[in-house]
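User: Okay, second chain of the day. Same drill as before: sequence in, structure tokens out.
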Amino acid sequence: MVLEGMSLPIPSEVVMPLVGYYASLGIIDPVLGILIGTFGSLVGSLIDYYIAYYLGIPFLLRYGRLFGLDKRRLNSLNRWFSKYGAMAVFSFRFLPGFRALISFPAGLAGMRIASFVVVKFLGHLVWDSILVYIGYAFAAQWSLIMGLIDRYLYVVTVVVTIVIIMYIVLKLRVKPGRGDSAEV
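Assistant: Same drill. Structure tokens below.
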């Protein structure tokens, strides 16, 4: 779960239901499993937060063009994060493919560490509890559940990715009349 919290491709959707499955067999205490998984994810999220915090805006001003980021976009991100930061940190926990990535803008924006830890912990706790419950409740159908999660996780991730790409493309489009026509 530390690796999952660090944005690595270790899905909590596999790890935490497995904790629930083992809890149904009496091998692990579900509350202990939830707490260990939650703290592991939180540690990984803090690593990402501090990487962004210490590399910060100067790093992105120097290398941001490689990611399509310039000073204007970074300022815009910072304003957005100042307004919606805590809500974003909590709610992005429930979006596949983006749940760990929110730690980077939190670190970049210099979100107060206490606020970050509280909302990130709560998001992890809710998400991990749901996944452990699913693993526990559906232990007899373990292979069926894993197949469904695998199938629909990709669908949700693809849809969210397409929406984000469309948004970025629309934002990056050059507006007519801004000097894009050739002079004769």
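Residues 61 and 71 are 6 Å apart (CA to CA).

User: Thanks, on to the next one.
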